[in-house]
Amino acid sequence: MNFDLSKKTLSEVNSYLQHIDLKSNQRDFVIKNPLGNHALCAGLQDEIKVTIKGHVGYYCAGMNKNAEVTIEGNVGTGVAENMMSGLVHVKGNASQSAGATGHGGTLIIDGDASSRCGISMKGINIIVKGSVGHMSAFMAQSGNLVILGDADEYLGDSIYEAKIYCLGKVKSLGADCIEKEMNDKEIKHLSALLEAQNIKADPKKFKRYGSARNLYNFKIDNVSNY
Amino acid sequence: MCGIVGIYLKNKKYNKQLGKLLTGMMNNMASRGPDSAGFAVYNKSSKFKYTVCLQTNFDLKDLKKILKSKLTNTKYKLIADHVVIETSTKPEKTIPILKSIQGIDLVGYGKSIEIFKQVGNPKDVVKKFSLDKFSGSHAIGHTRMATESAITTDGSHPYSTGEDECLVHNGSLSNHNNLRRSLIKNGAEFKSLNDTEVAAGYISNSLKNKISLKETLMNGLKDLDGFYTFITGTQKGFAVLRDEIACKPAVIAETKDYVAIASEFQAMAHLPDVNKADIYEPKPGIVYSWGS
Lengths: 226, 292
Prior knowledge:
The complex is a heterodimer of chains A (226) and B (292). Chain A is 10% helix and 23% strand. Chain A has 226 residues and is mainly beta. Chain B folds into two domains: 3-42 and 118-290, Glutamine Phosphoribosylpyrophosphate, subunit 1, domain 1, CATH 3.60.20; 45-110, Alpha-Beta Plaits (2-Layer Sandwich), CATH 3.30.70. Chains A and B meet through loops of A and loops of B.
């Protein structure tokens, strides 16, 4: 089923996709002419596939649950912010705060993500095939941020228990973020993340970064919560 | 919030559509700044060497009468409540005369700049000035959500504090009072209590001292404390700078025909071939410039 945002309003399209009639078999949707609209595909809850043909604005696929959203273009601030589950795939570049506060699901960005990618992430997996901007994974609590390119300044500033894997150069690490051992368990973990998305990269070549645990009160008894 | 937009044409075939393209960009940024709007268009086509833009409540007839004995060989264009004077007299002579007349507000001057601003919804403002009829080589626009000073024409962007210079700003500066005082000591004049006018004055002061625009903006990273995405226009082009935290948005779309910058992609969604453009965010603390 096709929607054309130059003919239908944003609320009409969003409302339709947010209230799918589960008795029908319609699960595939295409949105044409997104024209940089904000909050497109925000709050989807069902197992549907949406392809957006073009560039979108802020908070695309925010709060996503179950849905698979592909954006054939660039996205503005806060793509997949607070995502709960599902998959969001950006084929272009992403603006700042991609995947912010995400609880679950996977966000893949084929291009670059700008500053604060994965800020305060809480369990989401973010894979950036390009590079990330400054302050990425700021206060990241749990989940994985995988960067195939480089990272700008202050990566992982004030990080909690999220894991960062970076293949390229890291300009600088933020407060309380340190390089950590890339042991067999970690290589296996990263390998599974990459394989799940058919990404061909050697997990052994990545460096891992995480919390030095000096900035917050880390209790080993709580480790299973992260 | 505020919305900023700019377009620089690489291909002359779009020169006649410049105003139309900028109109669409400003209309789409109206939601980011509903209080006032303004724009600067650069167009070198007049047989006169200089243009001066004024805002005035005088009738054109009365204005001509007042200026008749003071300015010779001039052409007047009335556009809404702004008057564009085209003249061959040097600004050094024209500007003090115009400043001395009560009821005239100088908006900007230079060899190719025409600059207009007014309070009201940007969609109405661009209509009043018939922006869609303008042609030129590059243009900059602003839609304002007022924070640092009152909603007046003096508080609206772009700010022009030097020949062919203009500045639009999304953000706020926290050290503008101190900086204003030190610039006034160096001879700068300010019309408002607005923070952006101080940044414009800072840039003009530096350019006056023969420091390049790029170096000026890089020095600004140290001297201007606050949040900003700036677009600064010159006779030849424009430059973009974001502060090092980069909270204030900006996105650039570049094709073989033009470079466009805006606070949000939405502003550029109607531009020709934008879906084939190279679209990226300017990185913090780096000066991007075209033509200038």
